[in-house]
Amino acid sequence: MQIREARFDEHGQALEIIRQAFVEYETLLDPPSSVGWETVETFRARMGDGGVLVLESNQALIGCVLYERRGNDTLYLGRLSVLPAYRGQGLAKQLVAAVEAIAQAEGRQIIQIGVRLALPNLIAMYQQLGYTITDYHSHQGYTEPTYVTMQHQLPPTTA
């Protein structure tokens, strides 16, 4: 297995991995995830100043994660996805570690992610990886919180 930057022509495949991975959340999320109506163009725009890492196994893409640079010290990760048939092998954690490695290589100290409150298993996974909840947020039109921002402080890099 290999984690690497996605080629431009693989963005559609990465989006399809995300859609397949998010199917199980369709009935849990209110408001619904925007994954269902995302296009390759909006997917690329979502990356902002960042990119997408893909997880490749036997010449097939089986997972991905988006990352975006925010300010001088933060890297945001999003849309972490592993195809259902490949879950339970620690692959999501490997993708998170790859994003953290990018952050460290760039001298960034903070990794952030937004996680829906309706997905406590994902919140717990990130907590196991050292992420803490820093803020509660509500989607537009909702009065109660619907998601949290979590962040992980990376150790300082030594020059």
What is the helix tally? Answer: 4
From the N-terminal CA to the C-terminal CA, the straight-line distance is: 30 Å
Order of strands, widest sheet: 1-2-3-4-5-7-6
SSE series = EHHEEEHEHEE
Proportion of beta-strand residues: 25-35%
Number of strands: 7
Give the mean pLDDT: 92
| Radius of gyration of CA atoms, rounded to a whole number | 15 Å
Could you say which overall geometry the principal axes of the C-alpha atoms support?
A: globular
Your description of this structure?
By secondary structure, this protein is α+β, with helices and mostly antiparallel strands. It is built from 4 helices and 7 strands; from the N terminus they run E-H-H-E-E-E-H-E-H-E-E. A 7-stranded mixed β-sheet has the order 1-2-3-4-5-7-6. The radius of gyration is 15 Å and the shape is globular.
Structure described in brief:
The protein is an alpha+beta fold and 159 residues long. 28% of the residues lie in helices and 33% in strands.
Question: Could you list some keywords that capture this structure?
Answer:
alpha+beta, seven-stranded mixed sheet, 159 residues, 7 strands, 33% strand
Tell me the layout of helices and strands.
Blueprint lengths: L1 E4 L5 H12 L17 H8 L2 E8 L2 E11 L3 E9 L8 H15 L4 E7 L3 H9 L3 E6 L9 E7 L6
Parallel strand pairs: 4-5
Antiparallel strand pairs: 1-2, 2-3, 3-4, 5-7, 6-7
